[in-house]
Design a protein that fits this description.
Strand content: 25-35%
Largest sheet: 4 strands, mixed
Radius of gyration: 18 Å
Structural class: alpha+beta
Shape: elongated
Strand order of the largest sheet: 2-1-5-6
Number of strands: 6
Length: 127
Amino acid sequence: MKKLVVVINDESQVEYDRSRELPEHQMNYLNVMDEKMDEGIPHGAGHLFSPDLQQKAEFISNQLVAAIKAENEQLAAATLSWLAIRLPELQQVVAEEKDGETTIKFIYDRPYVKPQAVQFKPMKLNS
């Protein structure tokens, strides 16, 4: 089973292992989250009523990134679980912060790979 990894500014923050089954009470909580979002989610200057799956995912991912930054583990766990369960092919949520703006991308086509430093040996050129 694939993992879902949240990356903020090129650093892995948290991951969800889909091979572990979510307890029933937590699945019920995800259903309640869906019901509440169906009633409307903040969007721009107003609210978006009956959002589709993608719109919900965008809202949830924003909540997830904010929860990670605020060290709100319960909200981070709930929102990460929602994304992992509702978007089973999603492999990465990548957030980039620049000039006070946060952009979030969903990566479906490749798993997260921890960056590794590459060491180059100096070469002598024949001249």
